[in-house]
């Protein structure tokens, strides 16, 4: 049994899983309510059995999407600071954060139940996200692009507020404008 647990999935199985994850993420973003597993499979162009083979429960799919999005945020912070000036990296990361928030639209009930049951460590996610923000803030402080008196908690609270009043994708333009205003406030004053 240990051999089966450590076996590397076939390339086509890994592609199917990745495709299902990408489609589920997209469906969760656009859904007003939690979509059925059947709707996700249909959107992915696979049978329901294929979906259940990769994600045996709704919770396993929600967990995979959630972890994938958190991973994109944490890895994204490092990648962005390596390729963009810190202020530009922060603004791009804010868009990634907005994508993560929007993904929760179609999985919120399941996600909240999983957090309540202790199946998802909300505190750990918060720590990972604050660390990602701090990565960019530290680079921005060192470069003189971002204010020294702003904390990761300040930015996280601001982002939650922005995406609460301007949810994506419905209010993409408003969210973008508010994020740009936030970025103006994160830059150090002249002189």
For the report, how would you describe the main beta sheet? Answer: none
Element-by-element helix/strand order: HHHHHHHHHH
Number of strands: 0
**Termini separation (Å)?**
66 Å
Structure summary:
The chain is mainly α and 191 residues long. Helices cover 75% and strands 0% of the residues.
What can you tell me about this protein's structure?
Helices cover 75% and strands 0% of the residues. The protein is mainly α. Helix 2 packs across helix 3 (37-44), helix 6 runs antiparallel to helix 8 (122-143) and helix 9 runs antiparallel to helix 10. The longest helix has 26 residues, at 58-83. The chain is elongated. The N and C termini lie far apart (66 Å).
Draw up the topology in text.
Blueprint: H1 2-6, H2 11-30, H3 37-44, H4 48-54, H5 58-83, H6 86-103, H7 108-116, H8 122-143, H9 152-165, H10 172-186
Helix pairs in contact: 2-3, 2-5, 3-4, 5-6, 5-8, 6-8, 6-10, 8-9, 9-10
Core attributes:
single chain, 191 residues, mainly alpha, 10 helices, 75% helix, 0% strand
